[in-house]
Design goal:
Radius of gyration: 24 Å
Number of strands: 2
Structural class: mainly alpha
Helix content: 55-70%
Number of helices: 11
Strand order of the largest sheet: 1-2
Largest sheet: 2 strands, antiparallel
Shape: elongated
């Protein structure tokens, strides 16, 4: 737990600690050499606050609650670690792989927790809690979309086929849209800040998708369609710029990013303008094609480069959990069945959990030394 507030730690420090803790925790969940629930599952009370809701904390006499909470918080550590690595002045190929893997690994932990363990919780998830399916969907899609951003940045750097980049951008925009839509029914005063961030990222990537679609169409001598695609790219970029202002004026939990100041946001506007000017010039001199009223359809699915959560499973129980050790536990004084321990008054007397003091992570203000300028905001 002491490692998680610091995203500057290396993965090879956090992962062994996670494996060791989960191996010990598993003995509270399952009886030794069995899939039956452990008699110790409800012996201890665990308290956690939620990433967006904050205090007061939620508490349960349930080791499964602890397992889900740990998996989700380690997933958040992976996301923050990815942002920390991506924020460096120059990101090497190995570091880009680390960012990609961290995002996929974190998404895998969330998916595993939600699919395998949240259904076994004793209590229904609180609205807006980290166990709420809507919040889970937002985190999962955002992490997967950000992993795909790494792929897009590399494709731009290596000047891959414009059609492939367009399809990847389209898929990424859809993921950010799904994430934003999942938060729409939650309290806007609490979740509006996050939702607006996801909306602007979706709008930005649809602008990128139409820009590269226009470039791809021009390469196929479909100049009229290319002009219409680039006109749509310009429109979507202007929408993204408006959403940046809305995001900046919305209050809510989380980091205050400045997406309109990022190189990745700024670089696309002059590219759209130059390519559109070139298309209009060549269409007037060479192609003489009609510009359609409707924007061309984008590729529905990329053939390469799609990111997905990394599969995860729990480590086996620690060797300490032998049958004799398990049998030695006396549950005649089970706190979960003690009304004085389980009452709301007793929990209120404990008070809120202290605020977590997260270690500072360096965030650069200068532009990335790359063609894409991509970074995780």
């Amino acid at each position: 737990m002491e490692l998680l507030p610091d995203a500057n730690h290396e993965i090879n420090v956090v992962e062994p600690a996670l494996t060791l803790y989960l191996a010990l925790l598993r003995g509270l969940i399952h009886a030794p050499d069995s899939t039956d629930w452990s008699k110790l599952r409800h012996a201890l009370r665990f308290r956690w606050s939620h990433s967006v809701l904050g205090n007061p904390p939620e508490s349960q006499f349930d080791a499964v609650f602890e397992l889900v909470s740990v998996l989700q918080n380690v997933a958040l550590w992976y996301f923050k670690h990815a942002a920390k690595v991506a924020a460096q002045d120059a990101v090497s190929n190995e570091e880009a792989k680390e960012v990609h893997r961290s995002l996929r690994r974190g998404a895998g932990l969330l998916l595993y927790a939600q699919n395998e363990w949240v259904p076994h919780l004793l209590e229904q998830p609180l609205p807006g809690s980290d166990y709420d399916p809507r919040v889970h969907t937002a985190y999962l899609n955002q992490a997967t979309a950000e992993a795909q951003e790494v792929t897009i940045a590399r494709a731009v750097e290596l000047k891959h086929n414009a059609g492939l980049i367009s399809a990847l951008c389209h898929e990424t925009s859809k993921m950010f849209t799904t994430a934003a839509d999942s938060l729409a029914s939650l309290d806007h005063k609490v979740f509006g800040h996050w939702m607006n961030y996801l909306k602007l990222k979706a709008a930005l990537y649809i602008a990128y998708a139409y820009n590269y679609s226009g470039e791809n169409l021009l390469n196929q001598d479909k100049c009229g369609d290319a002009i219409r695609a680039l006109q749509e790219a310009k429109k979507c970029y202007e929408n993204a710029a408006a959403l940046c202002k809305e995001y900046s004026s919305t209050k809510g939990p989380g980091t205050k990013a400045k997406p309109d100041k990022h190189q990745f946001f700024r670089r696309i506007a002059p590219i759209i303008a130059r390519t559109l000017e070139k298309c209009e010039r060549e269409n007037g001199m060479i192609y003489h094609q009609k510009v359609p009223y409707d924007a061309p359809d984008l590729e529905l699915r990329a053939t390469y480069g799609l990111a997905s959560p990394e599969e995860y499973c729990l480590p086996p129980s620690a060797p300490l959990w032998s049958a004799s050790t398990y049998a030695a536990f006396d549950l005649t004084k089970n706190m979960a069945q003690d009304p004085s321990m389980n009452s709301k008054a007793a929990q209120k007397a404990e008070g809120d959990l202290p605020a977590v003091q997260e270690a500072e992570v360096h965030q650069k203000d200068s532009d990335h030394k790359s063609d894409s300028g991509c970074s995780l905001m």
